Protein: Efficient mitochondria targeting-associated protein 19
Amino acid sequence: MSSRIDKFYTAYFWFHVAITLLVDAAIALPVKYQFDIQKAMLSTHIAMNNDVLVAAKPAWLQGFVWIELVLQVPFFIWAGIALPKNDIRVYPAILAYGVEASTTTFACLVEILSNPDISAADQRGLMGLYLPTFIIPLLMAVDFGLRISKKLKAQQSKTVKFE
Structure:
């Protein structure tokens, strides 16, 4: 593995497989298809954090969770395997994930901060939970955008131009 940051990203990907399947999936799946552990973890999260956004399960949030389940979980597994092997083929996917995840989390942050039903104290607590899932993917997007740009520039300088 090339760096400490890549080790962090890899841990983040594997952690998110578990979080997505055990907690987030319960936001989108009908109750009859949820495992007891999913119901319990979601209920615990809502109760401990007074997360009215997750409790309300708006359609747009459920849509974001379906993106997590269908696109991100397979990506997390691939990235969790490929990044430690320095497989640069995963770089564009990490860039895309970073942009997508930071964008969808930004929508959640805006909702939390603009919802009059969420107290200032609960907003601060929820920001502590949601901000990392905004900042880390945004950092990935910038990091892997720069890595890809550097690789492309190096490749371009190797190419002999005949004009």
User: Anything to note?
Assistant: The chain has a mean pLDDT of 95.
